[in-house]
Fold these 2 entries.
Entry 1:
Amino acid sequence: MNGLWDNLAFAVALVLVAEGLLPFLSPRTWRNTFEQLAKLTDGQLRFVGLALLLIGSILLAL
């Protein structure tokens, strides 16, 4: 069971690193991208979320 928590902590840490890269390297691009995402409708955001879930699931399966 300890290995499961270690893997989960590692995965969360990787997500935080990935999420922090763009604002650190290019804050203007990150801000513009975030503003564009905020303008999407709920349906469009759900589609983006679904696409990300599917891509993540496929990557995990590989």
Note: The two ends are 23 Å apart (CA to CA).
Entry 2:
Amino acid sequence: MEKVQTEYLSYKQAMKILGLSSYITLTTYIKAGLPVIEVAGSKRIKRTDLDNFMTSHYVNSEEA
């Protein structure tokens, strides 16, 4: 069976990709600017938005 890659992730899928175990941490990311799409009460995170958000938060290893 072929695994389907989806562009629009549920919160649970996004948390799995990020390696998060806490919903609170995901909501912190959302408050920090991670875009969320809401249609008819269903909230999704676009995979490219997730990647772009994480990339935009790189820190210099000397600053970390």
Note: The CA atoms of residues 9 and 35 lie 12 Å apart.
